[in-house]
Amino acid sequence: MDPELGRFESEDRRVLAPANDPMPVPVTILCGELGAGKTTLLSRLLESADRDIAVLVNDVGEVNVDADLVEARTDLETGDEVVALENGCICCSLGGELSRAVIRLWKDHEFDHLVVEASGVGEPEPIARQFVRGPAGGPYDLEAVVTVVDARRFHDRFADGEAVPVRQGPNGEGTRPLSDLVLEQVEFCDLLVVNKGDLVSDAERERVVALLEMLQPRAAIETAEYGDLEPEVLLGVERFELETVRDSAGWKRQIEADAGEGEHGTDGNHDCSDGGDPARGGDHTHSDGDHAHPPERYGIEVEGYHRRRPFHPERFAELLRSLPDGLVRAKGLTWIAGREDQAITTSTAGAATTLEVTGRWIASFAEERQETYRRGQPDLVWDEEHGDREVRLALIGRDVDWDALESRLDDCLLSDEEMAADWSDYENPAPTGMGETVTISSADPEAPAR
Ligand SMILES: Nc1nc2c(ncn2[C@@H]2O[C@H](COP(=O)(O)OP(=O)(O)OP(=O)(O)O)[C@@H](O)[C@H]2O)c(=O)[nH]1
């Protein structure tokens, strides 16, 4: 156990809070892909804000250019208030280091607000969780997660369908598709800053905004050039709520609207989720008039797809290699023949789809255990034949022929004859172990699935 964290956890939290300063320090987390303009925006904020702002910068495996830049632009007396974490990503390996650094910062310095600039390849949720459930939640209060979007790149990649590099991570060889991370950052935030407004036309900017509204309907959206926003826009945002932000992504709302109140989540742990849905043979749900998302603009729509039948692994992989250009996002749980235990999350972002084992179907457990899980989830609707195994996806795209996509998805389902046959001989690219991922891209149809 880390000595500092251990001590902190074992002591009364009030020990850390000076008697005359019981208020936790507000925190803003700044996300956005590499080069979106986070540092530019932060530098402006430091120049214009009327309060003392401490900054924690995380660059992955690079010379810490951002920290130097921010430091050079601030009038802080010592410069110590800019803390750099360089040897990893704060969203994963550096969780403990992040907590330690911000607690140390809080003990040693007085400031009114903390901004954490996440690395461009970081997932925002684990960072936010450090301030909500981790030890940093004592002295700090997470105010908002702000995601900066490069309007030009976002338009070309998602609103225009241009093929983009599939993978990018620390040192350029990560395992998550870059587009998936970009959309996760968009989906998990309170405020979206559409930066580089000078590099897009008005019409392109409007398309980007419409798409962002569909992807994260709850977030406020501001457009900017070189991060030129008033400090109040960034710092006066309402309090962050982990569950609210996590559940407000467009794809998730669609799935929940489809499934009705209390439906189980789709982010894994299928064996301990909290709801169910009517066991329908299939319900392609048109979303018109649905309050789960903003009205359709610029041909951008969200759709639901639900079947209680598994995908044929080869046909499904083939579909993922030839997705329609306009499909921006698909996310949800999939049942893939030959993977009877594994609840597999399918996450499409632009051309790249990641399949990840995120849980186990309850139906895959021994009967006694199934009953225990089901007792804990009285709302779970159970299919007599298939239990909780299902395909349930939310699809977001522009100018997509939804009926054609629906029938292509249906063609991927096992036929009645295949349902009765042996599924073990299929060429199956789907992952097997918990947390294991496989990426399939339609930008590079010749590439092997793995
Ligand atoms: N044209 C234009 N360029 C911008 C704008 N905002 C930032 N830039 C430029 O884009 C480049 C990247 O900006 P940064 O602020 O370093 O981006 P970042 O998100 O901090 O990048 P990483 O730290 O690499 O993740 C710099 O050359 C900026 O000058 C803008 O609104 N318009």
TrEMBL record:
Protein name according to UniProt: Cobalamin synthesis protein P47K
Family: Belongs to the SIMIBI class G3E GTPase family. ZNG1 subfamily.
Catalytic activity: GTP + H2O = GDP + phosphate + H(+)
Keyword DNA-binding found: no
Highest taxon above the source species: Archaea
Boundaries of every CobW C-terminal domain copy: 300-413
Record-linked InterPro entries: CobW-likC_sf (IPR036627), CobW-like_C (IPR011629), CobW/HypB/UreG_nucleotide-bd (IPR003495), P-loop_NTPase (IPR027417), Zn_Chap_cDPG_Synth (IPR051927)
Positions of the UniProt region annotated as Disordered: 258-297, 424-450
Keywords for the protein's UniProt record, in alphabetical order: Chaperone, Hydrolase, Nucleotide-binding
Ranges annotated as biased composition (Basic and acidic residues): 258-273, 280-297
GO molecular function per UniProt: hydrolase activity; nucleotide binding
Keyword Transport in record: no
